[in-house]
Amino acid sequence: MNRQAKISLAKNLNEKMSFLSFEKRLSLTISHFKTAIFTSSLGLEDQVLTFAITNNKLAIKIITLETGRLFPQTKQLIKDTKSHFQIQIEEFSPNKSELQTYIDEYQLNGFYESIEARKACCEVRKLVPLKQAIKNTDVWVTGLRGEQSNNRADLPFAQYNESFDIIKINPLADVKLEEIWQIIKQNNIPTNPLHQKGYPSIGCEPCTRAIKNGEDERAGRWWWEQDQNRECGLHLPAENQRSNIQQNSEIS
Length: 252
Ligand code: SF4
Prior knowledge:
It is a single chain. By secondary structure, the chain is an alpha/beta fold. The protein has eight helices and six strands. The chain has helices spanning about 5-15, 20-30, 45-55, 70-85, 95-105, 115-135, 175-185, 240-250; strands spanning about 35-40, 60-65, 90, 140, 160, 165-170.
């Protein structure tokens, strides 16, 4: 499928999905594509999607990015989730020589020193492994929610991702945190114990802190940076807008 066809399909799916439950959005996704990947970072939303995929026996491969800087609690949750659902979660790690090149240039924790160094670290530890994970895949499913931050407030259900030339599906885009917790509790889904300690959004250990009252859910990520649009590059702020679907579909 060429780029323009992907843009049109994303627009069409986005419209259809606005009337569906998140589980039906997942079913609609697999009815349109041969191969689907769900990238889980083991967050609350991801655990709900893993539950829905497993419970409904949907043909969506679950993967995670093992950046090498995860919290011990997240690593344990990967093991617990595999065992709880009796599933495989494929782990994608950074390329060793590319990682060494990054460390030689910026130092292991050089990401605190500049946005350039931080983006270079996210590139080698997340983006490159993600590219590897989704190559030869037709569609990419994520656990993003619009409520997570101002950047994501207008998140579409389906969108064309320019960087990876792939259709991305966000089935939880309009789901509220309260509903996520309800599903987790009702179904006894394993979660990261850090959520109970003020960490609603959990990434790499050195780049995540607990949030304070009144802060948005992602305020604890790369907290030392001033840029309000900070993201790791997997999900760019500009694409997190439903209006962009229309805009992208007009680009020939
Ligand atoms: Fe590196 Fe931090 Fe990005 Fe993880 S979140 S890849 S440690 S800069």
